[in-house]
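A.,

Following up on our hallway conversation. Structure tokens first:
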């Protein structure tokens, strides 16, 4: 089984400068935004659906949180299966094809056909 990670949304948190704040980072202006439709949207989390939450510390002292939906699926053994970034999958497919076992000739592959 391979896993696919589809990004649902991002949340950006800023460092609190108020000494009275209990949280070190927050964002009081965040609105639900769908990464899939690239527009503001209601976000729904379903029971039984697995999600991955990742946190990244940025160079500008902010924190980005990414929430992704995890989907398991059947596939052939391929380098591209382990790649979660959609833009990189074609590169993984090319590498997989380059290193795949050679295809055997079928019955219709006759080298004596003159065309």
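Then the amino acids I'd put at each of the 115 positions:
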């Amino acid at each position: 089984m391979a896993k696919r990670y589809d990004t649902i949304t991002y949340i950006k948190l800023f460092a609190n400068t108020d000494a009275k704040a209990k949280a070190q980072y927050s964002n009081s202006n965040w609105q639900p935004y769908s990464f899939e439709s690239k527009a503001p949207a209601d976000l729904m989390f379903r029971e039984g659906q697995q999600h991955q939450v990742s946190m990244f510390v940025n160079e500008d002292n902010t924190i980005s949180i990414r929430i992704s939906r995890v989907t398991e699926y059947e596939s052939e053994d391929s380098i591209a299966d382990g790649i979660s970034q959609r833009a990189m999958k074609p590169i993984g497919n090319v590498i997989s094809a380059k290193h795949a076992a050679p295809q055997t000739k079928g019955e219709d592959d006759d080298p004596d056909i003159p065309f």
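Residues 80 and 92 are 4 Å apart (CA to CA). Curious whether your intuition agrees with the design.

B.
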